[in-house]
Amino acid sequence: MTAVFDNDDAVTDPKAFLSNLILREKQSSTGIGKGVAVPHAHEDSIRSQILAIGISTQGIDFDSIDGEPVRVVAILGTPRKHQKQHMELLAALSRLLQHEQVRETLVAAADAAEVTDIFKRSSG
User: Fold this and answer.
1) Taking 90 as the threshold, does the pLDDT of residue 6 lie above it?
2) What pLDDT digit, counting tens, does each position of 71-80 carry?
């Protein structure tokens, strides 16, 4: 999923970003339960907040806290200097994705535009 940032100016070193996500995941799973994972990195190779949403209809083994497969993956990256924004967005994402209706609507989305619309409607 991180490949979506390979040509994005917001990430100066995509390999470092991926490496930091993997390192964070090895520390403890970011599978927060209810079919949701929020891998995240907070580092200097990121110039501005970035977010990528991945949807799996079958589910992915993510070593989640509830043991259930993950169907919604939200990868978050923020610059190290934006600690407060990082924590706020991480908390907001976690809260939003705890709602069953939001998760079900995301998994049923037909395309990326619909996923974006779901987030706009749900967080407004």
Assistant:
1) no
2) 999 999 999 8
pTM: predicted TM-score of the whole model, two decimal places: 0.89
Question: Distance (Å, rounded) from C-alpha 52 to C-alpha 3?
Answer: 10
Q: Are 33 and 65 in contact (CB under 8 A)?
A: yes
Indicate which residue of 40, 42, 82, 86 is catalytic: 40
Take residue 46 and report the two structure tokens written for it. 């990121």
**Least trusted range by pLDDT, from 35-39, 41-45, 55-59:** 41-45
**Is 40 annotated as catalytic?**
yes
- CATH class, 2-30+39-54+74-123 region: alpha beta
Domain boundaries, the chain: 2-30+39-54+74-123
Of 124, 108, 119, 122, nearest in space to 76 by CA = 119
